[in-house]
Amino acid sequence: MCDFISINKELFEQLDIFINSVSDKEDSLMPILHKAQNLFGYIPNDVQNYISKKSGVSHIKISELINFYSYFNTEVKGKYKINICVSGACAKNDSKMVLKEFENQLGIKSGFTTDDLKFSLECSRCVGVCRRSPIVTVNGRVYEQVTPKDVKNILIECN
């Protein structure tokens, strides 16, 4: 834990300032977690322990919130977070073939990050654009009616 904290000292200082700025730490836990996610890019166990110590909120409660909400990550993710919807209309319109093409192009399976930390690939649930399925999002940008042939161009746009 000391190595992670010392390496990221400035980020922890920024997190401290934010935690200290809120009066009710427990009621402000979600904004604290969002701040941590924005600062570090993910919320590893070291950061969870630190938040627990500084806020007085149990590590168990912090961990449960992080695991419940899909926005939070406990592992480092790539610069480009690619999500392929695999439910409902997207599945019906061959989103699994799109996923397979991303896996082939990136050389990773869903749930993993490339070694250079450039891309993370995930399956997602419905994003609400079913009429234009299959849907792919990259860092929140929505791509509609994606086919396996579109994958290469989507990855080129990330460069």
UniProtKB/TrEMBL annotation:
Question: Can the keyword Manganese be found in this entry's annotation?
Answer: no
Name of protein: NAD(P)H-dependent oxidoreductase subunit E
Q: Which residues form a coiled coil?
A: none
The family note in this entry says: Belongs to the complex I 24 kDa subunit family.
Q: Which UniProt keywords apply?
A: 2Fe-2S, Iron, Iron-sulfur, Metal-binding
Q: What residue stretch is flagged as signal peptide?
A: none
Q: Which domain of life is it from?
A: Bacteria
Q: What organism is the protein native to?
A: Romboutsia faecis
